[in-house]
Automatic annotation (TrEMBL):
Residues 4-192 form the Glycosyltransferase 2-like domain. InterPro entries: Glyco_trans_2-like (IPR001173), Nucleotide-diphossugar_trans (IPR029044). This is Glycosyl transferase family 2. Pfam families: Glycos_transf_2. Keywords: Transferase. The keyword Transferase applies. One of its GO terms (molecular function) is transferase activity. SUPFAM superfamilies: Nucleotide-diphospho-sugar transferases. It comes from Methanobacterium bryantii.
């Protein structure tokens, strides 16, 4: 098998169906299989998806995994990852549409460089703008500080201040990056075998950054490939705003403790913790009060792939 595609579903029947169809309705020059992992949906979406894709499941093209409990996006993907034996793996969000020959282009690009551990494509929002999360730097102290203080928003074209989402780089060019977004991440299985599965300490947010961090640390390259594209209906499956805010900042805390805490002084760590949980408290308070904080703060609620409440 050339490729295994993993799609996590959580109460997103229409979106997930659309995502699957955007894959299987194309003629691909490679062999592939799709794993649909349901995170204990209570809306009947798993049953409906099984009915819709009965023929595909009978032929083995689509395999369904029913998770009895929603333990997060990482856990759901790991259930499928433990079953696959393909050369490549694609994490694909349930609120995306694969455009044209996006997957084929990415696989071809991977085939031409055996040092590539992961490739991400251009992720476009429905309004045609770039989903900035699809190419990022690791959130070390400086990068996170510039984002939290709004400097990355004020000076997006600055190589110093715009590192969080690499806004100073041309979105239509291809280059190496630190990390990609879990909405579309094509990985070489050899890299996964070397670094291990997704870290299930992350419920939603952060597990993709952590994976990329470990992949790069193991010597693999990670590339943002602009010639391939998907559409991301970001936030379409988001119904738990407070949960989303909490998990975003919790992921920052976990990531810092895992990869940076030992590198920085106690003072820097104290500043980091204060920044993370201070921002969390502010965002939570504003959201609870139903204030349009997007007009007050330079940065809105974290814009990550929220179908990862499939997470």
């Amino acid at each position: 098998m050339d490729l295994s595609i993993i799609i996590v579903n959580y109460c997103t029947y229409d979106l997930t169906k659309q995502t699957i169809e955007s894959v299987i309705n194309k003629n691909h020059p490679f062999s592939y299989e799709i794993y649909v992992v349901d995170n204990a949906s209570a809306d009947g979406s798993l049953e409906n998806l099984k009915k819709d894709f009965y023929k595909e499941s009978e032929t083995g093209l689509i395999k369904f995994i029913a998770n009895e409990e929603n333990k997060g996006f990482a856990h759901a993907n790991n259930l499928a990852l433990n079953q696959i034996s393909s050369k490549y793996v694609l994490l694909l969000n349930s609120d995306t549409i694969v455009v044209d020959d996006c997957i084929e282009k990415c696989i071809d690009y991977m085939e031409n460089d055996n040092k590539l551990g992961a490739v991400g494509c251009k992720v476009v929002l429905p309004d045609g703008t770039l989903d900035k999360a699809c190419r990022r730097s690791f959130p070390d102290f400086n990068v996170s500080f510039y984002r939290m203080t709004g400097l990355s928003h004020i000076f997006p074209k600055s190589e110093r201040f715009g590192r969080y989402n690499l806004t100073y780089l041309d979105e239509n060019e291809t280059y190496e990056v630190d990390c990609l977004v879990g909405a579309f991440m094509l990985l070489r299985s050899a890299a996964i075998r070397q670094v291990g599965l997704l870290d299930e300490a992350f419920f939603m947010y952060g597990e993709d950054i952590d994976w990329c961090y470990r992949i790069k640390a193991a010597g693999w390259k990670i590339v943002y490939y602009s010639d391939a594209e998907i559409i991301h209906y970001k936030g379409a499956s988001s119904k738990q705003k407070n949960k989303i805010i909490y998990e975003f900042y919790r992921a920052m805390y976990i990531f810092y403790n895992k990869h940076y805490k030992d590198e920085y002084s106690r003072i820097i760590t104290a500043i980091t913790y204060t920044g993370i949980w201070g921002m969390y408290g502010l965002k939570l308070s504003l959201n609870t009060l139903k204030i349009n904080y997007g007009m007050i703060m330079p940065n809105k609620t974290p814009k990550e792939p929220v179908s990862q409440l499939s997470k």
